[in-house]
Specification:
By secondary structure, the chain is of the alpha/beta class. It has 4 domains: 180 residues, Distorted Sandwich (Calcium-transporting ATPase, cytoplasmic transduction domain A); 333 residues, Calcium-transporting ATPase, transmembrane domain (Up-down Bundle), CATH 1.20.1110.10; 152 residues, Rossmann fold; 154 residues, Calcium-transporting ATPase, cytoplasmic domain N. Helix content is 51%, strand content 14%. It contains 33 helices and 22 strands. The strands form 3 sheets. Strands 1, 2, 3, 4, 5, 6, 7 and 8 form an 8-stranded mixed sheet that branches. Strand 2 and strand 3 form a beta hairpin. Helix 5 runs antiparallel to helix 10. The longest helix is centred in the C-terminal third of the chain and has 42 residues. The protein is elongated, with a radius of gyration of 33 Å. Bound molecules: adenosine-5'-triphosphate and magnesium ion. The site of adenosine-5'-triphosphate has 21 residues, from helix 14, strand 14 and strand 15. One of its GO terms (molecular function) is P-type magnesium transporter activity. It is an enzyme of class 7 (translocase). Keywords: ATP-binding, Cell inner membrane, Cell membrane, Magnesium, Membrane, Nucleotide-binding, Phosphoprotein, Translocase, Transmembrane, Transmembrane helix. Its main location: membrane.
């Protein structure tokens, strides 16, 4: 390939604006929308030959680092505010306020301390997790190509620099898959389209062009066609542009300072869905207790602190802490052991829930190292002339469109053509490849015929044939020829040409018609070595794999067969276009291979699968995969993916290796499984306690527990349950997608909650018996109830934890140790000096003996219920 410096020289020769002497940078930013290109270059103290390195360094010191949107840090203050806005925290604070209003200062203080502890733990946890994500992200540097000079007299050199070092006034080059590093004004553009989804929500790429003297801009901050913005990326085409604003001064930063524009993912659907159900429960509890107290015992507002405490008892305050800790631990283990980087923590949970994984073919199932195997004419006979035309197309689209690097197919064509590629006819224009049209076109001077130009078009067979002058039979025959080649697993490019009179004006897509078909170039692309095994592993883990490719249906199907995956009936993107979203959802469920997909098709299929209730992961590396990556619950890409893809992926793999996806999914299930177990266990016992307390509150002439006791008990539970973040789940948990389905989940927590409540009520009977039926000693009752609650909680943790230690019959493990601690506190606290402080009395020894019997029975019932639940297919 031609060295970068030479290409910079080409750029200089073609640039319409003469070099400018350096001018000082303006105090206020010039108007990039209205000024002419020349005025704007001058206003920025720059020129088409770029800044000098010294000037760029000065500007970097003045303007600061050009941080990309996804990489901007969240401050601790913002994080704290965010955690206070968490629904549970809000409800807890309201309950605290309510307690303060009725002067229940003890309850109010305990609630506020709970909120404080959970917020502090959460903020520090998230901060630490984010810092490590940030450090890992730093291992994935994103670069921009700038044109700069060593000094005033030096020649312009195009070179890659970290995006953070781009400054206003820099001249940058953009190619397919590049992130737009800052806000820029286009100086020149060829077939440029950009994805502005992060800015405008619009998923289709938007065409952009250089306008030397702009008129009135269209409405909307991101609409001007001659401006591109940080936060967008190049879909296809190329450009040279002037940087007008960086970092916090960009329009994206201004528009998004307020919100973070997150999408709704599987994590939100499950954890948040459950949270809201609980909050409704919580809000219902205090009025219920008050009404019952008033109706049965004629109590008034004095019951309120108890009612509030019961509602607090229901809250899983530690949920955000357990979630963050479990995810952060999983993410750091993945990075350490498998070099897989999770760039958005909740994505790890979603990864554990993935039941459909969509893949592109090239580079994932195959190595994306295509090698030309044949060049054949329309009759299927070898014809080197076809390769020469393909090479002329590849060479001139690469050079005239300023593409930084050739794509893999072009590279293979140039490699196969060798010296001939450079010695071919001289090019005059190029329309670079775009994955929607699946074509690239170059216009060259016709060899030996003055005043004549030849249009050389190469691309997908169907698209090329559509532009050829052919009768339908011939077209069918040529499609058949291509299908035969594809059926052997080859990738294909069709080549067609047309001779035209030379002309001064621009060449456009409209010129690509009436072509003469010249033939096909076929490519071999070896299978990825680990793909076959990984596909088997994924199937074994209950993950359905779907291939979404831009390639020929025959090629895609054969690659699947070679890997031992049954392609079934291949669906082409044209066929999906004829289906409604609902129909596509149904068809997508049973289809494995989708061929000839453009970027929009890939995204639509992913969306249809998600709408059908699947949690979808998407793995891709090309710019044509970007919309689908955005549409999926989890976007994955290899480290070598184009910048735009890597910057928006949730999970970045060290290599293009499907086996790494399998490991990442396992890690996701590990963390997701722990979060699920935590939620199930915590909520079922919380709910059980609330049921029991409500029931006994109706029967007893006094409160079954004092508010302070409820809250201390709650604190003990919370501390013990942090252990779930550290547990190693059993292999059974890792065998299928982890999904918290709110309905099944609620059934679990009410079922096990009722068993828990039954144990509590049995204890109530025991207490009645041991205190000789008088129930006179309230303090003894409270102590007995407290001990029983903590012991049953410890039992539930051990029996329902489903951890590896449980499954493998071993007795150590974080949850086990925490349960033991809880049990010890449950027995000893009422007997310690703290007991009388919390108004707990001593119990007769007989109570402990009877309690042991209740607990033994409870354990048996729990084990039986767990078995039944597992037989019914439920997760523990
Ligand atoms: N440089 C190119 N010039 C012309 N046509 C091309 C070029 N690259 C690809 N094509 C055509 O476009 C088709 C689709 O390519 P695209 O890059 O969209 O998908 P892909 O990367 O092959 O597949 P996947 O989506 O599995 O990664 C190819 O099958 C080929 O026919
Ligand atoms: Mg691709």
């Amino acid at each position: 390939m031609e060295p970068v410096a030479e290409r910079a020289a080409v750029c200089r020769a073609a640039a319409p604006v003469p070099p400018q002497p350096p001018a000082p940078e303006p105090a206020t930013p010039p108007d990039a929308t209205r000024l002419t290109s020349l005025q704007l270059l001058r206003a920025h103290g720059s020129g088409p030959r770029g800044l000098t390195e010294d000037e760029a360094a000065r500007r970097l010191a003045r303007h600061g680092e050009n941080a990309l949107p996804a990489r901007r840090r969240i401050t601790r203050r913002r994080r704290l505010l965010h955690s206070l806005r968490d629904p549970f925290t809000t409800v807890l604070l309201c309950l605290g306020l309510l307690s303060a209003v009725v002067a229940a200062w003890g309850t109010a203080t305990v609630i506020c301390s709970l909120v404080l502890v959970s917020c502090v733990l959460r903020v520090t946890g998230e901060h630490r997790a984010d810092r490590s994500v940030g450090l890992l992200r730093a291992l994935l540097p994103t670069t921009a190509t700038v044109v700069r000079r060593a000094d005033e007299e030096g020649p312009p050199q195009a070179r890659e620099i970290p995006v953070g070092e781009v400054v206003p006034g820099d001249v940058v080059r953009l190619g397919p898959g590049d992130l737009v590093p800052a806000d820029v004004r286009l100086l020149r553009a060829t077939g440029l389209s950009v994805h502005q989804q992060a800015l405008t929500g619009e998923s289709a790429p938007v065409a952009k062009e250089a306008v030397q003297e702009p008129g009135a801009p269209p409405p909307g901050p991101f609409a001007p066609p001659h401006l591109c913005f940080q936060g967008s990326s190049v879909a296809y085409g190329s450009a040279t542009a002037l940087v007008t604003a960086t970092g916090a001064a960009t329009r994206f930063a201004a528009a998004h300072r307020a919100g973070d524009g997150r999408r709704f993912t599987a994590f939100d659907r499950s954890v948040h869905g459950i949270s809201w159900t609980l909050i409704r429960f919580m809000l219902l509890t205090p009025p219920l207790v008050l009404v019952a107290g008033a109706a049965l015992h004629g109590r008034g507002l004095e019951t309120l602190p108890f009612a509030v405490a019961v509602a607090v008892g229901l809250t899983p305050e530690m949920l955000p802490v357990v979630v963050t800790t479990a995810l952060a631990r999983g993410a750091s283990r993945l990075a350490r052991e498998h070099r897989v980087i999770v760039t958005r923590l909740p994505a790890l949970h979603d990864l554990g829930a993935v039941d459909v994984l969509c893949l592109d073919k090239t580079g994932t199932l195959t190595q994306d190292r295509p090698v030309v195997t044949r060049a054949l004419d329309a009759e299927g006979q070898d014809d080197p002339e076809v390769l020469r035309w393909a090479a002329a197309n590849a060479w001139w689209t690469l050079h005239l469109a300023d593409l930084p690097v050739p794509d893999a197919l072009d590279e293979a064509v140039l490699e196969a053509a060798g010296e001939e590629a450079a010695d071919g006819p001289e090019g005059v224009a190029a329309l670079p490849f775009d994955p929607v049209r699946r074509l690239s076109t170059a216009v060259v001077r016709t060899p030996g015929r003055l005043g004549r130009h030849t249009l050389v078009v190469k691309g997908a067979v169907e698209q090329v044939l559509d532009r050829c002058a052919l009768d339908p039979d011939e077209r069918e025959r040529l499609l058949g020829l291509a299908a035969t080649e594809a059926a052997a697993g080859s990738r294909l490019l069709a080549v067609a040409v047309a001779e035209r009179d030379s002309r001064p004006g621009e060449w456009t897509h409209a010129d690509e018609r009436g072509l003469t078909f010249r033939g096909l170039v076929t490519f071999g692309d070896a299978l990825a070595p680990t793909a076959a095994d990984a596909l088997g592993e994924l199937a074994g883990r209950g993950v359905g794999v779907k291939i979404l490719t831009g390639d020929h249906p025959g090629t895609a199907a054969q690659v699947c067969r070679d890997l031992g995956l049954d392609p079934g009936q291949v669906l082409t993107a044209d066929e999906t276009d004829r289906l409604t979203d609902a129909e596509l959802g149904a068809v997508a469920r049973r289809t494995t291979v989708f061929a000839r997909c453009g970027p929009g098709h890939k995204a639509r299929i992913v969306t249809a699968l998600r709408a059908g209730g699947h949690t979808v992961g998407f793995l891709g590396d090309g710019v044509n995969d970007l919309p689908a990556l955005h549409a999926a619950d989890v976007g994955l890409c290899p480290r070598g993916a184009v910048d735009a893809v890597r910057e928006s992926a949730d999970v970045v793999l060290a290599e293009k290796d499907l086996a790494a996806v399998d490991r990442a999914i396992t890690a996701g299930r590990h963390s997701g499984g722990n979060i699920g177990t935590y939620l199930r266990i915590t909520l079922s016992s919380n709910l059980g306690n609330v049921f029991a307390m409500l029931a006994t509150a109706l029967l007893l002439p006094f409160l079954p527990m004092l508010p302070a006791q409820v809250l201390v008990q709650n604190l003990c539970f919370d501390a013990a349950q942090l252990a779930f973040a550290y547990e190693r789940p059993s292999r059974a948990v890792l065998r299928r997608p982890i999904r918290l389905r709110p309905r099944g989940f609620l059934r679990f927590i009410t079922g096990f909650g009722l068993i828990n409540a039954a144990a509590d009520v049995a204890t109530f009977g025991v207490l009645a018996l041991t205190t000789h039926g008088t129930l006179a000693s309230q303090e003894a009752f409270h102590a007995g109830w407290f001990t029983e609650n903590l012991l049953t909680q410890a039992l539930v943790m051990v029996i329902l934890r489903g951890g590896r230690h449980a499954a493998e019959g071993r007795s150590t493990g974080p949850v086990h140790r925490a349960a033991l601690g809880l049990a010890v506190i449950g027995v000893l606290l009422p007997l310690s000096p703290l007991g009388p402080l919390l108004a707990m009395g001593t119990l007769p020894p007989l109570y402990y003996a009877l309690l042991a019997t209740v607990l033994a029975l409870y354990a048996v019932v729990l084990v039986l219920a767990r078995r039944r639940h597992e037989r019914a297919g439920g997760a523990v």
